[in-house]
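Most newcomers find our protein records easier to grasp once they have seen one. Read left to right, the backbone structure tokens trace the chain's path through space. Nothing more is needed to start thinking about how sequence determines fold. An example says more than a description, so a record of this kind follows:
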Amino acid sequence: MTCAEATARVARMPTFTAPDGTLLAYHASGSGAPLICLPGGPVQDSVYLGELGGLDAHRTLIRLDLRGTGASAVPEDPSSYRCDRLVEDVEALRTELGLDTLDLLGHSAGANLAALYTARYPERVARLVLLTPGTAAVGLDTTGEERLAAARRPWREEEPWFAEAYAALGELAAGRGSAETFQAIAPFFHGTWDDAARERHAATVRQRNGEGAGVYGSEGAFRPEATRAAFAEFGQPVLVVAGEGDANTPVPTATAYAELFPEATLAVLAGGGHFPWHDDAEWLVETVDSFLE
């Protein structure tokens, strides 16, 4: 999508210009103080975040469409999809909104972008929410056994799909498998693998920018030691949210992430997966809203 095409598509949608001239869009919904929301994927249309289970009843959610997704234009330079380069897009959004400081939420791979923004602009972040976070930015590793343990939840083990999906996860945990194997473990990203979860999973294929996803975490994107050092000095409140059954960000990984900060709270949703607002919206809204207040 060119900048001109993006302009026509979002005639009534808030837009702003990134430092390199790329036209970016964001979506504002709800009422209350703003909460900047960075989507995962990586490089996935922010539409999948929705209203985060009703959090917009308490906060004005500002969902950023990353470049090349949703209503934002495709950049002329594909290397600008790299996560560290997207930090300046977030800073441009802050400037556009006229905020001295911001409350920032990053989901999954979007937590890597939130982490890099916080490390580069710590004085601009008032509160940080890391929602089932990806950990590449801070260099935390998750063992195969930790992923398998997260998958082995009592409510799953009697499901007809469990044996095949668990075997596929075992292959990936052992360093084997293919793209088809990865698709087979999709149930372990969701608290409940029902028809709604299947539809949401299928939608990710349409919503994700494949080219951008391939660049997002490419060489040079992350400097884990520097980011961890910045977090050790970050004194603002941090909330790390995990799902009990999330094989992508198991509870031990989320716990280790929270321990990188001087002041962090870990909240774990029993029976939850990688998208906790779909598993227990009331719990997520109460947890995040209470933290932000």
